[in-house]
Design brief:
Helix content is 22%, strand content 28%. It has 267 residues and is of the alpha+beta class. The chain has 2 domains: 103 residues, 2-Layer Sandwich (Alpha-Beta Plaits); 133 residues, 2-Layer Sandwich (Alpha-Beta Plaits). Strands 1, 2, 3, 4, 5, 6, 7, 8, 9 and 10 form a 10-stranded mixed β-sheet that branches. Helix 1 crosses helix 2 and helix 3 runs parallel beside helix 5. The protein starts with 7 loop residues before the first strand and ends with a helix. The relative contact order is 0.20.
Length: 267
């Protein structure tokens, strides 16, 4: 009798448009990205599958390189995993790559950091074609004021004032390594790099930066908010539409892709 092959751990990179979904994490209603991905994998290899992701995204948030891992006994070529799984996925979710990894690899715990990008349209008129894919402001923004404010967030801090009241993280302390604020015409690009993020952390920072950029608050206000630890003193949570999980990054020796074709679209 032929014995089954020992399980092999696989890492997959996913891109998705989050508009139609209740976030990443599986829920009873089944309207999440995780539910769709696991159902597609199960159809491809004809057995139940569970995956672990690098970073859970909220409802309406997109991803260009979400990384997940799973254990598989099936021996397939990487291209077969990609194309075979994509056959069963809706058009707004797609596997971009697959790599075999060591058994100790964990998509979440092995990550050295994570990046998010927020795309914002500054225009007197709301977006039409880009609706659901960008944030929007009709107010003129001051780039230098936002850059000055963002600098106070760099480093290791207690981000209690900038996380959701529903956040379940054991600690509010995070290390924010970089924030980039750039503009091309009416388009703004905000990039955030940290060891990990709290629930709604990026969207709450965005709300604060836009108040500062529009002149409603001084850059020094954000430092006072951060030090207060009081969520009620910060800006309201900004819209999810323009937020993209750019993906995690790992030890370079793992040789896992940090970009997909959608990454170029965000730049």
């Amino acid at each position: 009798m032929r014995r089954p092959a020992p399980p092999v751990r696989l890492a997959l990179g996913l891109s998705y448009r989050g508009t139609a979904y209740d976030g990443w994490q599986s829920q009873p209603g089944g309207r999440t990205v995780q539910d769709r991905v696991e159902a597609a994998l199960a159809s491809f290899i004809d057995r139940p599958v569970r995956v672990t992701c690098a970073g859970r995204t909220d409802a309406g948030v997109h991803a260009v390189n979400q990384v997940v891992h799973l254990d598989a006994e099936e021996l397939r070529e990487p291209v077969s995993w990609v194309r075979g799984t994509n056959r069963f996925l809706p058009d707004d979710i797609a596997v971009q790559w697959m790599r075999p990894v060591e058994d100790a690899f964990d998509a979440r715990r092995s990550a050295r950091g994570r990046r998010y990008v927020y795309r914002l349209l500054e225009s007197p008129v709301r977006p039409g074609l880009e609706s659901g894919l960008v944030g929007w402001t009709f107010r003129s923004l001051d780039v230098e004021a936002m850059r000055a404010a963002s600098r106070v967030l760099i480093g290791t801090h207690d981000f209690s004032a900038l996380r959701s009241s529903e956040c379940q993280a054991k600690t509010p302390v995070r290390t924010l390594r970089a924030i980039g604020v750039d503009r091309r015409g009416p388009w703004w690009r905000f990039e955030f790099d940290a060891d990990a993020f709290l629930h709604h952390m990026v969207r709450n920072i965005m709300g604060c930066l836009l108040l500062i950029g529009s002149g409603a608050r001084d850059p020094a206000w954000l430092e006072a908010v951060l030090r207060s630890g009081d969520r009620s003193r910060a800006a309201p949570t900004f819209a999810p539409d323009g937020l993209y999980f750019a993906g995690p990054y790992y030890d370079p020796a793992m040789a896992l892709p940090e970009r997909t074709s959608a990454s170029d679209w965000l730049d």
